[in-house]
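Lecture 7 notes: from sequence to structure.
We start with the chain below.
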Amino acid sequence: MKKEQMQKLRIKNKEELAQELKSNQDKLWQLRIDVANGKVKKVSGIKKLKNAIAVINTVIKEIK
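Predicted structure tokens for the same chain:
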């Protein structure tokens, strides 16, 4: 993730971050189902979503 994106995340409050985290987790779940069903052949999106989830979790922990 770029520095600009990290700064945008740090500006958000905890509720907005939690909402974005839930959204990314739902997208990841749906992508995994699509891969299992053969609808998606490129699985690189899984890695990107997992990375985004990890970054959001890190920012949430920094707020505490």
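Points to note: The helical segments are 3-11, 14-37, 44-63. The mean pLDDT is 91.
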